[in-house]
């Protein structure tokens, strides 16, 4: 394979947005948004309150339809896209009712029921996937607890486990650390950076944490559309693009995190 072909394979567009416009009733929120996110990118989406970040994510995951423009997912127009298991989505925390009477295990398992399979029977293999996701996020011990009884940081891990249960190629996170203390935020960022660098997962994350975004993704945005700014980091250098041996296994995630911590002389903290 020639080098330029190898790059093409590595740099496939995972999300392509062309001229997306959207209004709520008569109020325009997004106008002609253009952006492409490639495999192995980590994209931080920044914008002031009301800039339309959540609206854009909801359009990307098919919950809202744009007034005009097109969305392609993994090279397919969104209307034809069926492979929703490849995408994990964690909505804003306050979008979830904390009194919802479900256990952590039930919440995580619900990530398996994609749009086409709402009433599928739970199999033994599903249970194993759930155990792996709980283990990867280090919350096995919380499996039987009501989701509403957990701390903000624990809830975030549970929602991340829910989004990860299908081993997605793309994770979309909407302000994942809102309301979480600084130390837990740092652990969370460490976890998702690790997933980006070592597990071949592509990220699109809305955040107000400009310091975190800049420290990982660089000082300047790579793209801008209206009030939205896209900060981008690719998980490896172009010349390494032929590398394909990145681990993409949920089972291995926690072990490799722990190896990294031992290597860096860090203790175990949740
Ligand atoms: N269901 C709705 N009906 C009418 N207007 C809405 C609706 N949802 C959001 N809006 C408005 O659309 C604009 C964009 O909202 P959106 O939630 O996408 O912004 P955001 O950039 O995610 O904001 P924040 O940083 O505050 O989360 C806001 O002015 C908001 O009030």
TrEMBL record:
Example GO molecular function: ATP binding
The organism of origin for this protein: Paenibacillus plantiphilus
Keyword Nucleotide-binding: yes
Gene transcribed to yield this protein: btuD_18
Keyword flag ATP-binding: yes
Every ABC transporter domain range: 15-250
InterPro entries in UniProt: AAA+_ATPase, ABC_transporter-like_ATP-bd, ABC_transporter-like_CS, Metal_Ion_Import_ABC, P-loop_NTPase
Keywords, comma-separated and alphabetical: ATP-binding, Nucleotide-binding, Transport
Protein's UniProt name: Vitamin B12 import ATP-binding protein BtuD
